[in-house]
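Many introductory courses stop at the sequence. We go one step further.
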Amino acid sequence: MNNLDVIQHTSADYLGLMEDHLEGRRIRFRYIRPFTEKGRIPPPAECGDGLILLGGGPWGTAGARDLPSLAEEIELTRAFLALNRPIIGIGLGTQILCLAAGGGSQAAPLTFEVGQARRVRDDALNGFLPEIVPHVSYMRDRPILPQGADTLAADDHGQPAIFQVGDKAFGFTGHPGFKPAMAEDLIMEFEEGPADPVPALEKLRLSMHAIEDALVPMMTGLVQVTGLMQVSRRISITLENK
């Protein structure tokens, strides 16, 4: 069984619908919460086989309201990149991934948008990325992709929505498993929120079936290209040969 470390930046933003897909494949994950009283970013030696960097609500990386654990998370992500371990950045996590890989981030206001991402490469996620997928973004600031990164899908503004860095690192500026309750909790948790979130919330509720349907092939492709089940397969083969 592979084990993932999931860095959470606020209690409201978690894996959402992605949890069921990981559990169904027997991929274990643990949440790391540096924002809690005794929370911390672990060193690479204490981490598992892969890393997921979640969103952060109003937290950003470009100076207006920087994530308190930003420096430590960039360092950890660099270590995972050097070890060629799987990394998935979501929302704020895409900015951390880009900063760790030699790219950057740019200042942008906190926004909550529900739109679409359009595939720009037919082979994206081993060909499992649908041509059009829902794109739900709740984020401050924007990632600047490092040199050599590949854009796999673009959002309604023509900006990278899904991208790949190296062999096993992927960024999703929108959360592929977002739920309406997550947006509601983010709005309630912080004193700072997006302007007039009601239309986006209504649009999100109407998009849930499409989000669920798109996540099925996306997770299949993502697990394949990151190799998140390879250790489990090797163990199974070894046991069968004994």
